[in-house]
Amino acid sequence: MAFVLWVLAISVLAAQQTPPAATSPAGSGGLNRTPAAPTGPAPRLPNGHVDLSGVWQGGGPVGNIADGLAKGETLPIRPEYQKIMDGRNAKDDPEANCLPTGVPRRDPYPWRVLQTPTHTFLLFEGNIHSYRQIFMDGRTHPADLDPTWYGHSVGHWEGDTLVVDSVGFNDKFWFDFRGTPHTEKLHTVERYTRSNMGTLGIETTIDDPGAYTKPFKVTFTARLRPGEELMEYICNENNGYVHHITGSAKEF
Amino acid sequence: MRVIAAVVASVAVLMVMSRPVIAHHSFAAEYDANKPVTLKGTVSKVEWMNPHARFYVDVKDEKGAVTNWNLELASPNVLVRNGWTRNSLKVGDEVTVEGSRAKDGSNMANARAVKLADGRRVFAGSSGGDAPPPAQK
After folding, report:
1. Contact B43, B91 (CB under 8 A)
2. Could you tell me which of B34, B105, B33 has the C-alpha nearest to residue B69?
3. Does residue A33 belong to any structural domain of this protein?
4. Which of A31, A107, A247 lies closest to B30 in CB terms?
5. Which site in A82, A122, A176, B117 is 20 to 30 Å from A58, CA atoms measured?
6. What is the pLDDT of residues A167-195, one digit of tens each?
């Protein structure tokens, strides 16, 4: 009986892991016409960990990082950084200028998770057409890092949650269209939990004693895009109109 | 009174939620939703490139003077996913475009709706990425 149940469970799982029939991205529908994301249990890798692979959309701030705060909370931003934020113009958003979003910001384009035994890669369609690499081999952060757009990321599993710890960020990227700032002291801890087949919750603790008086948490949810593939997105190709953006970042 | 406040709040929430955020830059900082513009003319060029597809339209005024307008769409990726192709709009097509003008006053606008001379709608979505798919045949 137990064996029958086991076989049944495996076949159900296998059925859920079978990707839906791929649709050609060109001319035969797209994001708005893909079927609703499936809701069965999250699939697992042969090693027992949750399989996060797939093409996802969302999962981070786009317009306003404060949207991810718990109800009633406000950003614990230091007054001098509030001033920096208030003075920002939308045309200066590095992301509008085809530079990376950094962490935890997302662009409204799909992205793919790719897990290998040693690394987890987040492949971004846009913006920009880039990737994050998360070391899964147990290493720690080097002592002296050159500040970079995506920082240095190491990951480990806590139960069914992938925990990604990142430091070594530059202070150039904005957290959102509004121009929410940070400093090179930024340290993020992202917790990726695939609560079911179609849902990936990402809770990020932002600890930046440079720009904020205390750490804070933001939570965003990514949705699976069954049958979707990443497309090429070269932002630099035709971005010659940023100077027409005249408004304050606050107007986003 | 409380009901009115609740309705106002709900409308405000809906407005915030419906903000177009598919673009890779802030929409409201570039275009003025309060400056709608309708342009009728001939497509002079189509740029099917990221981060935004663009097309240019020659618009003739009453005196015959021609102004070339620069019109921004969503990214080709968004348009393709919604069923449009790089051939959906061609140089020489007669179009009517509804959009919002750029805040800097230049002859630039986002294109919210594009109609061909025969009434068919093309792209029918703004650089905010809310383009619905083409009509099913």
Report:
1. yes
2. B105
3. no
4. A247
5. A82
6. 999 999 999 999 999 999 999 999 999 99
